[in-house]
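re the bet — no i am not wrong, look at it urself. input seq straight from the record:
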Amino acid sequence: MAAELEPPVVIFALEREAAPFRKRLHLLKFPVTLRVSGVGRAAATRTVASLSSPSLVISAGFCGALNPGLGIGDIVSDSRQLLTVDHLVATAQEKQALRERTAADAVDMEADAIRLWCLKRTIPFLAVKAVSDTATHALSPRLANLLNGGEVSMPKVLAALARSPALLPELLRLSRHTALASERLADELMRTLTKFHQPA
């Protein structure tokens, strides 16, 4: 007899990506496992490698748009159009260069590592990403450095603002964008998981 499959697993890099979906988990009438891996391929690989036999693995979270037609909160769910890189893509020039070189619609830092793990084990995989910065949006070098590595502590934010008060509007804009992206992401994950769970 084949081993019984475990519930679907949704892997986020950051808690701020996961928070709205976490609040809605109880609305699903079937079990779903939520994991927060940390940023980057290595962290994502460690997390997915700790799984056994999930019925589905979803790499969820934020992505940066490379396609100029994508706006804040838009969903990218075609993994073929999602480019996984090893650093935060902070400038419009780099986004344009990646778009021209790869024709990808968006960029993230984890999805392909999770996809490859699932592919080797013939486990169904989906990427569900929400745009948190557009193709023309650039982060200042100071803010990019602050965000490098994912989660940002309040003491670090306050220290950065003390050194550079001009960061405040950029931080507020980023907060609005990620709040919208995380809500849209939660909506899409609820739809995706409900559809997956429904019998054929």
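see?? The longest helix spans residues 167-197. told u. also The first strand starts at residue 9 and ends at 12. so pay up
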